[in-house]
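# step 3/5: fold
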Amino acid sequence: MSNAFMNWLCRKLIDSKCKQMGLIKSSVNTVDGRTVYFKGGQGPDMVLIHGFGANKENWLALAPRLMRHYTVWIPDLIGFGESDRPSNARFNIAEQADRVVRWLDAVGVKNFHAMGNSMGGYLTGALAANFENRVLSACLLNPAGVKGAEHTTVGRAFADEGKIILAPTNFEEYERVVNLCFNGKAPPMPGFMRKYFGRMSIKNKALLDRVFMEFVNPDANVSLNEMVEKTTVPLMAVWGDSDQLVHPSGLAVLKQAKPAIVDLMLENTGHCPMVDRASLVYKAHLEFMPAS
């Protein structure tokens, strides 16, 4: 069977499973292009923002829990997943935040809670800093963008040699990237689905390289420290103590910048706690922002 057919079939199976969970897929066009997203649940609006090289499906373990209390909106950011990849898009963190707000305007969401992971955590911080009148609370999961945190091995490879390990060129590299996101091996996933997401990532490598260079460039981005320091939005930061991608020392740096931030270090947890520690993240967020 061809890759095109397998991609179509995988997409149908994923969308069907999500629909059974109460997540309906839609899309909307803005000046930035077409954004594809999931929506589900009931209650106040909450936006879930994936990280670099990731997609809206990263939230499927946590979303059903949050849907007990919130209407969740889960986009594929422009440049990722099923959303458009316009050649003129820029990916510094402020412009990405602006695009998210234009998408929210298009779907009719005004005030919202936000949660993001990795680059999405950095983006969530930008939303809290730049759109205080709209963001009700912000939860940062293993966020990128912390100035002064230690380097992981992956971070050091980029700082010293310019290697972007997180943009794979083949399936073996993709598997390594996925495993780096967790403390040990990644949670089980059907092989055909892993290959589907792997093909999408490899196909997107050239853009991933450009995105990475733009959102980590300190000359083009305000640090997350500065953002959390200035915002008045209620903040929570959660980090896995075994994060191999963004060093967990960043949590203490954020706490120093914003003593009022609610901080939580999860033991034996890697870079994507919303995937393999969904229950703990849900409970922690419920304590931080009790459901009405």
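# step 4/5: annotate
The first strand starts at residue 24 and ends at 30.
# step 5/5: archive (pending)
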